[in-house]
Amino acid sequence: MTSVSELSAVLGEQAGRESADTFYQRLIQAARSGGGRLLVVDMDGKVQFDTFDEQCGTRLALSEVHTLLDGEKESDYGFHQIDNGTQQAPSVFDPLTGRDVNRTWVGCFASALISGGERVGALVMIDSVQETVDSLTNMRDRMLGIFGVALAVVLVLAAVISRIVTRPVAELSAGIERMSEGDYSRRVHVPGRGEMAQLAAAFNQMSQQVHNLDEARNQFVSNASHELKTPLATMKILVESMIYQDDMPGDLRQEFLSDINKEIDRLSSVVGDLLTLVHIDSHKLRLRREMMVFADTVRESVKRLQPLAKKRGQEISMEIADACEMFADPGKLAQVCYNIIENGIKYTPDGGKISVRLRRMGRDAVLEISDTGVGIPAEDVAHVFDRFYRVDKARSRDTGGTGLGLSIVQQIVRLHAGSVTVQSEQGKGTTFTVQLPVK
Question: Quick one: which of 340, 337, 345 has its CA closest to 296?
Answer without folding.
Answer: 337
